[in-house]
Each structure stands twice: as structure tokens, then as C-alpha cells.
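Researcher: Let's try something more involved. This one mixes different molecule types, so please make sure each is placed in the same coordinate frame as the others.
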Amino acid sequence: MNKRRTVATASMVMAGVLVTAGCGAGGPSAGGGDFTDDKVVLALLNDASGVYKDVSGPNSKIAIQMAIDDYQEKYGDEAVVDDIEVTSADHQNEPDIANTKAQELYDREGADVILDVPTSSAALAVATQAKNKKKLYMNVGAATTELTGAQCNKYTFHYAYDTWMLANGTGTVVTEDGGKNWQLIYPDYAFGQDMVKSFTGAIEAGGGKVAGTIATPFPNDNFATYITKAGAAKPQVIGTMHAGGDLINLVKQYNESGLKDQGIDLAVGLMFISDIHSLGVEAFEGTIFTDAWYWNLDEKSREWADRFMEETGDRPTYAHAGNYSAALQYLEAVQAAGTDDADKVVEELEGKKVEDMFLRNGEIRAEDHRVIHDVYLARVKGPADVKEDWDYEEIIKTIPAEEAFRPASESGCSM
Amino acid sequence: MNAVLQYTVQGLAAGSFYALAALGLAVIFGVLGVVNFAHGAFYMLGAVAAAVLLDTVGMSLWLALIVVPLLMLVFGMLVERLLVRWLLPLDPLYNLLLTFGLTLLLVDLVKRRYGVSGLPYERPSALDGRVQLAGVGLPVYQLFVIGVALLVCLGVWLLMTRTRVGMIVRAATERPELAGALGINVGRWVTPVFGFGVALAGLAGVLAAPFRAITAEMGSDFIIILFAVVVIGGLGSIVGAVVGGFLVGLVEAFGQAYAPTFAQVLIFVLMAVVVLARPAGLFGREEATA
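Model: All components are placed in one shared frame. Result:
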């Protein structure tokens, strides 16, 4: 009967294996050709299979290809480079894998620019590689302000959004609308802590106060008691800093808790349209959040979203649109510089005012490489107001570019 | 006091999922000696099946509570017949690896087909709202989950103790060689028992659908807690699985309430303490050392 004991021990060991399985190393990737100056290689590095796959993932490769097509159509024979490639790699949201993949992309696959890179810790690892290799890096998918703060560098640019912008939008506006007393629930890792700091600043600046914060494990599927606890303090607003599957768990259990009927609102720190699509508008109805871009914003964005939908079958998130814009602006800069030499391209990008499908009143700030643009405060529609698939958001306010992002003077960035 | 009542209900509701799934795990381990690592994936499949059936044929939760476990029963029997059976004569580690591999496969297949963002699910409106008890509004759905779990656990207990089938299964669990020597055809019960265990995981998944995010990964963390549950309750012990399940649910809820940072650690501290004091778990049978 020792068999039983062996199995018990083995199962405990395997449970340990399971816990760490998510941290496994990435397999070897196919080796690329040698770097040639005859071509430009755009490399997409993001989460191709995990929690952030639907937010950006493989569909961003299609978005980047659309940017290449548009560039080639625009310049035709005038284009300084004919051969433009897009390659991609999966970083599984792990900083060490991101680090290795970034080296491979720059060195072996001859990448001239790395795009996207969600997950803050992975994003910062790639920034270090960009700095060391003196190659371009345009981050779209990560939220940390460190990229344009203490850890900024000459070759790193940050697109789309960050924690300061999210907190400034949602935190300030909800507070000014009367939600003065907040409880914050956040996942206990870098992103969550960063968001709490940013939100607390924004809420206090708006004349409100954060009465309490509750840290939760990450990832986690049972939030019922955390929500009850936050509700027991009788706040006006509960702010959640969770994302992806955790956010869906939390929203389902908030709806279950009955706090909504007691007039305790839920504000969401970070949300993508793919989250609403997954859970349905009923669950999120009335939720206010900050959006970097919305596919149905106007004619220009809608036209692009239609093209994207033809290719992928889905409407784009702002990460998809951001990757398109980053790739396009990179190619424009290469065109202007007449080379893919990183230093010359950076020179072209710095301080440039940009207007495209994604960037409205955009500017690539020279001081900290934060790409600023108009952002939007959105409210999730009720089921009755939804006129077509993905018609989920009502834009209630446009926050002008200069106010939407952390001022360069406060960034703490020196290049 | 009100808060304590709320935490208790929340803990029992979470514990219901653990108890149901752990029960399936215990039955399978008891009869087959297989540590089914795919149990978390079966739980996930139950929730995904409920969501897909609601979306495609409009099947309500009520019907899904019966249909999905039946589907999972068939699926489980197929898995046993086609895969698990071949490895039974070998070292138990082979089936551990098989079911672990099966988990990776199922999770990736669901991801490929249904994406990573999760599926929507709406429960019947009869289960919306709250009932007032001692001045506290308790969600109807949580009470419903607890009720279903208790009923099923009671049913399984009666099945095990009051019927001939149960007697055979118990005999096979406790002393497989002896049961065989007494002329009981243990092998005949292996396939249905495996299917039954999988069906219980599927049932837990259906109950979780309105309450949890339905994603391919939803079973990954669940299985880890589940192993803590069966180690606490005693591997292969049916009563232990149920008591362990509810106990872990309560520890989780009160941990979240009074020591949020340590909520998950507490479960494993409990596990360590139980294993130190009673290596076979709370309800496990101490084995004569060989």
C-alpha cells in the first residue's frame, strides 16, 4: 500500500509543478536571416496565447501589415524602401522571456523596431534591450509610466495609454461628478500598486478621498468577500484595478453583491472593448472608464475598423489601432530620414505633431517620448442602446491631449 | 455579526464548488488509484459547455445542470476507455502525467476555439436578487449553489452507503485486492466511476458559470486549491472531500475578510498543519506501514 503514499507525494509535487508551469522558459525560435540594410523589419512582441491575446495578440500583426500596405500605397515608387517585413514573437507576459525574445529579434531577425509588448515588467525589460542595442522600441500595450519616467531612454517611445492617463480620466472625472469617497481594490503586483498610486493622486486632486485600499492575490477568481468588505465601509465608489479574467470575475461578483442597488458604483481602472464583448453589456452597463480610442469614434476610425474587421472578423481594440499607428509613424519617419538608422529615425520622430486614424492632436513629445493625443471618457451602453455588434460605448467626454497625460516636467525622465 | 453571516455564506458558496469537484476527485482516486490532474480542466469544460449551450441552443441553467453533467459523464467514460485504462497496470505516475497532458491539451483547444477573453453567461432571473436574513441581504444564487451542492453530496453519500453499487465501490476503494478476491468484479465499475467523477467536476463548472469568469484558464488555479482540499480531507475519502471543500471555502472567505494578503496562503498553511498532525488527512485512513 505504499503506492498510495507515493501517489499522494507525487500529486503534491505535481501541484508545485503546476504553480510554476506558467513561468516556464520559452522554446527556441526559428532563426532569422542575417540583417540586411535592404529591408525594414517590424517586430511584434506580445502575448500570443495568454490573457492579453484578445486585447492585442496576433491580430496586431494584421494591424501592422495594414500600416505597411498604407505606407506602400501612399508612397508607391517614392518609397525609400521596398522590402518591409513584419515578424512576431510570443513573450507569454514574462519579463525574462521578453528579454530573450527582444535580443533575438534585434540581433538575429534584424528587427528595426519592436512594437506592442504588454505587461509592464516585460515592457521595461525590452526598454533596457532597446537602450543597449540602440534600436527602436514603440510600446503600445503596457501601462507603466516608468517607460517615460525614471527608466526612459532615447530609443523607447510609449503609445496609447498609461496608468497616469487612466487615473486622470476615470479618477478625476468620477470624483468631480460627486463620487468623493472611494475604496480601491487592486491586484497585489506592480501594475495594481502603480494604479492605486495614480488613482489616489487623481482622486485627491479632484477633491475626494480614498478611505481604504484592499490588496488581492493575482490571479484570483473569488472576490465576493473583498467586495463585501469594501462595501461595508459605505463608500460612494469602489474602484477596481483588475484586468482581464480577474476583472470579469470581480464584475460578476459585484453585480451579485447588491451594492449597485445601495448606490455604491463601480469604476474600472483599465478596460478594453474585448472585455465588454466577452462579458456582455448587461454586466458592465453604466460603467465609466477611460479609453485611448474607440472604433466608432468617427468616420475615419470607423473606416479603418471596417477594414480590420474584414481581415480578422472582430472590431479592433485601442491596442490594435495603436500598433497600426506606431508602425505607420515609424515608416513615415524612415521615409523622412531616408534610412533605418535608429538615431536618424529618432530625430525624425521627436517633437513631431501627428494626426492619423488613431492619434488626434497627437504629438511625439521630445522630452520623455510619451506620445500624447486626445483620449476619451466612455460609458458602457445599456442593452437597449446597442445598435450593432461591438456598439458598446458612449463617449461622454474628450480629454484634450495636453491634459490627458502626465506633463513632461513631472516625468522625471532624463535621456 | 451581519458581516460574519455574509462571509459564511460566501465561504460556503465557494466551498460548494470545491466540495463537488473534490468529491469527484476522491471517487476516482478511490476506485482507480488515479490522481486526476485533468479535474480542473473538466470543471472548466462544464462551465464552457453551459455557456456554449446557452449561446447556441438557448439552454437555460436549469436544463444545463442536468444535461452538462450527463455529457461530461459520457466524455469521462470515453477518456477512461480510450486513455486512462491503458496506463492503469503501470505505475500511477503515468496516469498523473497523462491527465496533466490532457489538461494542457483541453485548455489550449478551448483557447483556440473560444479565445482567451471568456464567454458571457446569464442565469435565470429566478435566481437573481437577494433574500433578507437577520437584516442582511444574501444573494439568492449563492444560497442556491450551497443547496445544490449539499443535495448532491447527500445523494452521493446515500448512494455509497445505502446501495449495492455503493457498497461495491466502497469495497473497491478500501481494499481493492480483497474485493476482487471475494469475487466482486471491480473492473466493471471502473469506467462508470471515472465518468461519474468527471460529471461532478462538470456540475461544479455549470454552477460556477454565472458567478465566475468562464475562460480556458479557470481550472488552472482551481485544481491547485482542489489538491489542497483532498489532502486536507484525506486522499480518497468521500466525507473528507466534502468537509475539506467547505472548510477551505470558509478559510478562504474569512482569510479574505480579516487577513486579505494571506488569504490564499492560509489554505496551504491549513494543509501543512493537517498533514503534520494527521498525515493521512482529516478523514483519511491511517495505513499500516509496510
